[in-house]
């Protein structure tokens, strides 16, 4: 199958490509086309489970599953984690009603136009390259979880320790190839057309490590359900 590759993040009005992935929370495969013509779908494309920010983004998305289902909208979470590692994680950290798929090769991210940042010494060309000086100057502010605003690397270390998360060999492989993968959520109508999106690419990375406000997601869902 020829791989889809969008040159920019998909926007409202764009038709989502079909992507076929291994299911984590059930057996078999999951495809975007499984929902096309059937139900609207909220697709969350995240980094691997090694990323503490993504673990929180996944949990936040899962919290909306029931409310979205009441509006006839399904949800699909995609992680850049090998299938067995992902299944083990969700076995011990289950999320109710979670439908998840494994994409260690990041096929879905490329298909939806989410780039992977390359870390450099001096080059800053968002959203393709970022210097380590720029990274270290960033501050992640997560009241209630971080004791103070921290640079992303310090924040990841703090959150991993707080979660008791142990990085495995599978995680290390994903970090080596996709540590800079940008993530996003896309709400598709029943025809597979994007109607709303939230990505780390937007506005020079203003949404990095963040989650969309639940009211924003549900407002987009309500508008589509009309």
From TrEMBL:
Domain of life: Bacteria
Entries under SUPFAM superfamilies matching the protein: Thioredoxin-like (SSF52833)
Domain Thioredoxin, first and last residues per copy: 10-223
InterPro entries noted in UniProt: AhpC/TSA, Thioredoxin-like_sf, Thioredoxin_domain
Pfam entry (one): AhpC-TSA
Molecular-function GO term, any one: antioxidant activity
Coiled coil: none
Protein's UniProt name: AhpC/TSA family protein
Phylogenetic lineage: Bacteria, Pseudomonadati, Pseudomonadota, Alphaproteobacteria, Hyphomicrobiales
